[in-house]
Amino acid sequence: MPSPAQKSRHEEDSAFVLHTYPYSETSLIVEMLTRQHGRLGMMAKGAKRPRSALRGMLLAFQPLLITWFGKSELRTLGRVEWREALPQLSGTALMCGFYMNELILKLTHRDDPHETLFDFYSETMGLLRAGGKGSNEATQYGPILRRFELRLLKELGYAVSLDKDIGSGETVVVDKRYEYLIEQGPVAAPLDANRFQLRGQTLLDMAREDYTAPTTLQEAKQLMRRLVNHYLGGQTLHTRQLLRDLREI
Q1: What is the pLDDT of residue 150?
Q2: SS3 sequence of the chain
Q3: Cα 75 to Cα 43: distance, rounded to the nearest angstrom
Q4: Rounded CA gap, 232 and 33, in Å?
Q5: I need a labelling partner for 143 at 20 to 30 A (CA). Which of 1, 6, 18, 67 fits?
Q6: Terminal alpha carbon distance of the chain
Q7: Are strands 38-44 and 27-34 parallel, antiparallel or unpaired?
């Protein structure tokens, strides 16, 4: 008959490290995004010891296969293998990766599986490594972050309607201006309104994830900042300020 430890053993779940911090002189706490079980907190026992098999393995942005034990909120990390050794992110791409990790840490709950989010996160890591297609860092990395923010919110169940006017029920019109009511959607803006507005073209572009037009990219950044801030509920994003200081993305 399997022991309690064997019953709580999980073999070879795909994972990414989101964040690590010290726990005692020799161990680490590791926040991981796993494909099958969502975000999990792990105790990496002895990971700081020079001869630990875990030392040097727990790097952010590297695809891992992990084995872990336990049913409590803080699991025990067992074996860790790299699925493949990929080039580390650097420069602005690295800061974008840290921003994505912080969003996941602050917007998701532990033990809440999101396989689609895991797969899109992995895909986005590849895009960051490739460096995007723009002529400058804003057009290289801005579209990558906007797509990730939007997909993350939708995957977590937040309503982000883009292409329907919630006032009329009609499809958004390219050359009209719209206000965006959070948790509802766009509504045609009064002519004399001085609040934040978007072009209908921007909303339609965002719905099909097309950030080619500079105005779309700029307005999308403003809209997504408002939406993310709302769902963060007052939590501060430290990496956003770092990104702002590094480049206006």
Answers
A1: 96
A2: CCCHHHHCCEEEEEEEEEEEEEECCCEEEEEEEECCCEEEEEEECCCCCCCCCCCCCCCECCCEEEEEECCCCEEEEEEEEECCCCCCCCHHHHHHHHHHHHHHHHHCCECCCCHHHHHHHHHHHHHHHHCCCCCCHHHHHHHHHHHHHHHHHHHCCCCCCCCECCCCCCECCCCCEEEEECCCEEEECCCCCCCCCEEHHHHHHHHCCCCCCHHHHHHHHHHHHHHHHHHHCCCCCHHHHHHHHHCCC
A3: 6
A4: 19
A5: 18
A6: 56
A7: antiparallel
Distance of CA 212 to the CA centre of its chain: 22
Residue 132 has a pLDDT of 65
| Of 93, 97, 118, the residue nearest 108 (C-alpha) | 118
Q: What is the Cα–Cα distance from 101 to 60, expressed in whole angstroms? A: 9
* 45: Cβ contacts below 8 Å, ≥ 6 apart: 26, 27, 76, 77
> For the chain, what is the mean pLDDT?
90
**Greatest pairwise CA separation for the chain in angstroms:** 74
Distance, CA of 39 to chain centre: 12
* Cβ atoms within 10 Å, residue 215: 12
pTM for this prediction = 0.90
pLDDT value of position 219: 97
* Residue 28: how many other CB atoms lie within 10 Å: 22
Determine the Cα–Cα distance for residues 199 and 172; give it in Å rounded to an integer. 9
